[in-house]
Amino acid sequence: MPKAFTRAVSPKLAECELTHLQRMPIDAQKAASQHEAYESALEASGFEVIRLPELPHHPDGVFVEDTALLLDGHAVILRPGAASRAPETSSSAEGLAPHFELHRIESGHVDGGDVLRIGKTLYVGLSTRTDAEGIAALRDIVRPTGFDVVEAKLKDCLHLKTGATLAGPDRNGSQVLLFAPDSVDPAQFAGIEPMAVDAEEPNGANCLRVGHQLILPTGNPRTAARLRDRGFQVVEIDVSELQKAEAGVTCMSLVES
Question: What is the DSSP string of the chain?
């Protein structure tokens, strides 16, 4: 059974790092309930959910994607660009060590939310959280494992995967890249068929493929309908409270591929 690694919501979630959103009141208890429903969706898709060690004093700890990258039996421990998040990586390494061969980025910064895997290519967004030095360090680490790293450009969004995620093969076998035109230019990615989200649903660009299903945040009905029209099995999950902390559905888990 494939594994998905998560971490509990911190009671201090309202103190999270914010880059593009205005701070709003966040109900951490409601966020925790939504997170549990998210974990249930992972389990329903055939994944064993394993929680990483809790970090109650780290507001952003639930966003585990930024701390590590899972690649075919390897786990690369990353260096998040927000200084407050640096201590989270030790906890992720502790939880992942029994399951993967660990590697660590030692210089620069890379947030996992900026890493988009398409086949054996890792497209890494140059953002406010990921820098050129970190991208070069990641390239050196993953090259021996058979992966290439390509720098990607993004516009006004937090992470690359805020604006583009791989939905996977549609009913015709085409690899579909779901993207928000105001955030990411799909022409920079090879081997995909771009599909724009509805103009009024930019949050729909962040989807998570688990098994044969796509997890999509609620509030994106037209984008969900377009995906279903192409044969995707879409599961809509309410993560509205977590979205106040700039969350997407990819950022709350590390999914074994």
Answer: --EEEE-PPPTTGGG---SSS------HHHHHHHHHHHHHHHHHTT-EEEEPPP-TT-TTTT-GGGGEEEETTEEEE-B-SSGGGTTHHHHHHHHHTTTSEEEE--SS-B-GGGEEEETTEEEEE--SS--HHHHHHHHHHHGGGT-EEEEE---SSSSHHHHEEEEEE-TT--EEEEE-TTT--GGGSSS-EEEEPPTT-GGGG--EEETTEEEEESS-HHHHHHHHHTT-EEEEE--HHHHTTT--SSTT-EE--
Give the integer Cα–Cα distance in Å for 158 and 18.
9
Residues 212-242: pLDDT tens digits?
999 999 999 999 999 999 999 999 999 999 9
Catalytic residues: 159, 251
Rg for the chain (alpha carbons), in Å? 17
pLDDT grade for 257, boundaries at 50, 70 and 90: confident
**In this structure, what are the phi and psi dihedrals at residue 176, rounded to the nearest 5 degrees?**
-100, 125
Whole-prediction pTM value?
A: 0.96
The ranges assigned to domains in the chain are 3-255
Tokens matching residue 60: 């952003």
pLDDT digit string (tens) for 116-167? 999 999 999 999 999 999 999 999 999 999 999 999 999 988 899 999 999 9
Superfamily designation of domain 3-255: L-arginine/glycine Amidinotransferase; Chain A (3.75.10.10)
Place of tokens 């106040």: 244
